[in-house]
Amino acid sequence: MTRRFRPDVDAPIYKGRYYPYDILKEGTIALVVVSLLVVVCATLFGSPDEPAVTLKQWSTAQPLDFASTALAELDGSSGVAGYGPPYNHNADGQQIGPLTLAKWMGVHIPVNAAEDFVLLPLTTLPDEPTLSAGLQEWAAASDAQRTTWLNAYAKGTMTFSAGVIYDTATGDGPVGLFITDLTSMARTGALDADLIAGRGYYTTDYTKPLLFLADGQWFGQLATAQHLGGEQWGMMNEEGNYPGQAWLWLYTMWYQVPPYNSSWSANADAMVWATMMVLTAILALLPFIPGLRSVPRWTRVYRLIWREHYRDEAQRNAAVKDPPSA
């Protein structure tokens, strides 16, 4: 018994003509053409090889911004210090409605902003008896005493002169010494080396310096100047105004439209991820979703793609129906 043809699932048997096809010839031509296009486009539009941004550059270009960020790391008011998972337990992290996805994943890249960005790097400075005494004083102080020192320092006015950070604060304990010495350490490049150094064989983990940079203002200014800010489609762009990774447009597009860029902006990453997972699932399961899988058949878009075939078939049918007279 012949099974009934199901137009929503089955594809009709192809009854058209067949043509010889040399895949090696076509592949060679495609390789040559694409290679030439790559060379020409890379020569005309290739983005410059910008050097990596460092803490040394930041502290040299904008020492007061660096010092202010260092204070925020020390007092726990920075973005990283209060971010939550995967860095710490100081917040629930991004979520989708009531689902605290980041909290479920937990802290697997532990970062203590005060310890990792300020206090531990300062312990590596040699021949600094005053700094060592200040670190011991900080370690022995209560949380209330530390808060008093931090608040006192924040009430002062920072200035930068002759390579040194000065502040008008009084009653700030060792905080002023920490900020001054950390800024000087960053300006020599030693802080970059300390934060990049890992505990294993490889020492190329840039997580901590990147997080530190992201908490300041200077890094964001660089991104905006290069058209890489979030409102400028971020990684969708290359250096300048040239379009970049086109395959990322669908992902980065969501950050530019409501509600991802407004009321849900605090959880934008999680919401965009969830949206992309849903769209990916729909694409992967498209052959099994009734209705959606029939859209190409209903729209007859295949006739546009195979227009030459259908034109030839129409001509053959016309010739069979009305053959030329003898």
Give a verbal description of the structure.
This protein has 326 residues and is an all-alpha fold. Among the domains are: 55-221, no CATH class; 226-284, no CATH class. Helices cover 51% and strands 2% of the residues. It is built from 16 helices and 2 strands. The chain has helices at residues 23-45, 55-61, 63-75, 101-105, 113-122, 129-140, 143-155, 175-188, 190-196, 207-215, 218-225, 249-253, 268-284, 295-299, 302-305, 307-321; strands spanning 158-161, 164-167. It has a two-stranded antiparallel sheet. Helix 2 (55-61) crosses helix 8. It is elongated, with a radius of gyration of 31 Å.
Provide a quick synopsis of the model:
With 326 residues, the chain is mainly α. Among the domains are: 55-221, no CATH class; 226-284, no CATH class. The chain has helices at 23-45, 55-61, 63-75, 101-105, 113-122, 129-140, 143-155, 175-188, 190-196, 207-215, 218-225, 249-253, 268-284, 295-299, 302-305, 307-321, and strands at 158-161, 164-167.
Topology:
Blueprint: H1 23-45, H2 55-61, H3 63-75, H4 101-105, H5 113-122, H6 129-140, H7 143-155, E1 158-161, E2 164-167, H8 175-188, H9 190-196, H10 207-215, H11 218-225, H12 249-253, H13 268-284, H14 295-299, H15 302-305, H16 307-321
Antiparallel strand pairs: 1-2
Helix pairs in contact: 2-3, 2-8, 3-5, 3-8, 5-8
Structural class: mainly alpha
What is the tally of helical segments? 16
Question: Main beta sheet: strand number and arrangement?
Answer: 2 strands, antiparallel
Query: Can you write the helix and strand succession as a string?
Result: HHHHHHHEEHHHHHHHHH
- What portion of the residues fall into strands of 2 or more residues? under 5%
The chain-level mean pLDDT equals: 85
What would the principal axes of the Cα set say about the shape? Answer: elongated
Q: Which consecutive residue ranges, at least 5 long each, have pLDDT under 50?
A: none
